[in-house]
Structure formats: C-alpha cells, structure tokens
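Record filed below.
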Amino acid sequence: MKIISRDRRTAREKRHRRIRRKMSGEASCPRLCVFRSDKHIYGQLVDDVTGTTLLTVGSLSVDVKSKIGSLEGASGKSGRAKAVGLVLAEKAKEKGVTRVRFDRGGYLYHGRVKALADGAREGGLEF
C-alpha cells in the first residue's frame, strides 16, 4: 500500500490544473481567475488566447477600499471579497466585457470565493 502525503497547497494546485485543462478565456469571454491569500483576495480577467491579463483588482486597491466604506456589512473578509467583485465588474464593463468564465482557482466555491462571484454578478457580469 502506497501512502501519499500531500499538503493543502499542492492539492489546491492539482485541482486548479485539472480545472484549467477544460477551461480557457478568450477576448470576447475572458477567464475570471481568483486568488485567495490568508488576508486578501484578488480577481483578474485573462485572455488565454493571447496570453494577456486584461484587468486585475485586489482587496488592497484604492477603488475597493472606497467601495468597502459604502457597502453594508463589508467589514470582514467576505465583505471585502464582494467589494472586489463589484469593482472588477465595473472595470470590466468599462472595457466592454460582459461575459466571463469563472475560474475558482481550485478553491471551494464557498465563503470569500462565492462572495467575489456574487459581487461580480451584482455588478453586471454574466457567467
């Protein structure tokens, strides 16, 4: 019997690679990629055909910090994630992007990842 020891990070990276084999973004429908650290969350729109990042928004950006003050109950990490989704949707609409493919990055669709997705949907993005 072979025992495989794997930590959480490598398991997440394996799930992410498995998801990415099936999904890619285009200029008309880019991939909304999520990265979550212990304190912050980031979302970016990626065009995989040309290999370019169209837009990046994180919980440390000035636009998000101003949005957090106007949202009710946005004091926690999930509230900040929702603000990131809203700002990302606003900036994407300015660039003419309305449809995206959601790449959760190997994370569970729960908590902050779900809050970012809900914020992006409220902001007007379709996925």
In short: The chain has one domain: 8-122. The chain has a mean pLDDT of 88.
